[in-house]
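Input (Epimerase domain-containing protein):
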Amino acid sequence: MQWVMVDLGDRHAVMRALAHAKPLPSLVMHFAAVAYVAESMADPVLYYKNITSTTTFLLDVMRELGIKQLVYSSTCAVYGNQEVLPITELSPPKPINPYGEAKLMAERVINAAMKADSGLQAIILRYFNVYGSDPQGRLGEWPRPELRHHSRISGACLDAAMGLVPSVTIKGTQHPTADGSCVRDYVHVSDLVEAHLRAIQHLDNPAPVLNIGSGHPVSVKQFVAACKNVTGRDFKVVEQAEARQGDYAEVWAKIDRIQEAFEWSPRYTDVAEGLRHAWQWRLRHPQGYEKHSDDSMADGHDIS
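Output:
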């Protein structure tokens, strides 16, 4: 395996990386993006640039090199607030933040490219909330320190459990949900990997669109409680009534289509089990992939 670090917004660098690969790749898996809802509300141009524009650059390079297969990493954020749950692939996209809008625009660019080139094949995978670590402890999630204030719930809770931050703030406790907090569909990263391996066998033109989730709704409050139970740490939780700007109250997936198409089902549907994998990795890697601490980890996390 060859590792090359390039800016996807630098078309010439992407061209060099792919053109010089031996052999020339026949398929591209496009994961690159920025993915923080609050940040997208504060800096929308960054999101359209880093998601939509870079996808057009990648498609242009693929066309020039004759690469005809693409797996695209999209998001449940394209759905926004839906009146009918669970969310299916036929639920109408209506994103409410620039992150979801930029991803939906990238999907449309891919579909337009496929209409113009009948030889191009792709698949679009809409992730729900990814969490967890490799069950064998080989890899775990460790966001860059400057992104910690945007931390996702699993990282925020684990940071608090490790004593790296004094508290976790749940933003939004007056949503129209059972306990007032947001409801999400948490899909284990290992299940996500397995879905991608199977997706390679299902490329088509036009591109199939598939939800990847667990199919189980879990509220933020329930997730935090599970994290406390798994870690055995009674970290401080602050509840804030005001919701995070651009957030949606409830999203969870109906996964019948991917189960039938891929003969795939999530193995890790209990969030406690996935959190246990993540916690074990954190305990073995208290400083993440680096051997130093960072003063920026001293602030509390805001999550929803």
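Residues 1-127 form a domain with the Rossmann fold fold (CATH 3.40.50.720).
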